[in-house]
Automatic annotation (TrEMBL):
Organism: Taeniopygia guttata (Zebra finch)
Protein name: Mediator of RNA polymerase II transcription subunit 11
Subcellular location(s) of the protein: Nucleus
Described purpose of this protein according to its UniProt entry: Component of the Mediator complex, a coactivator involved in the regulated transcription of nearly all RNA polymerase II-dependent genes. Mediator functions as a bridge to convey information from gene-specific regulatory proteins to the basal RNA polymerase II transcription machinery. Mediator is recruited to promoters by direct interactions with regulatory proteins and serves as a scaffold for the assembly of a functional pre-initiation complex with RNA polymerase II and the general transcription factors.
Assigned protein family: Belongs to the Mediator complex subunit 11 family.
Alphabetized InterPro entries for the sequence: Mediator_Med11
Alphabetized UniProt keyword annotations: Activator, Nucleus, Transcription, Transcription regulation
Subunit structure of this chain's protein: Component of the Mediator complex.
Amino acid sequence: MAGFGVANERLRALEELEREIGASLQSAGLVILELSKEKPQERHLDRQCAQFGAAVAKVEAELSAQIRYLTQVATGQPHEGSSYAARKSCQLALNRLDYARRRLAELARACELMLEP
């Protein structure tokens, strides 16, 4: 059941990422609110902009990590906790088997037609 642990860990990381996106949107909203004032406080703007930049950098890094993980899993490279490559290989083998059966049935029909008087 190690696969569930990896999946749960990935889901927790995505939930944290979602919270971080919310925090970055909140920081951006505070910046816009401060800019809408007649006399915005520069220090407050700088702090909110820095928080927004840090949140965006964290979101970008985590999204990149998630994309790299999904790319690795989807390309069939060996990955602990993933059965995608094995399922893909099995499905391809079943497709080849089905194709071979159809071709053999066609060959049998052709031979029967040739043997008819």
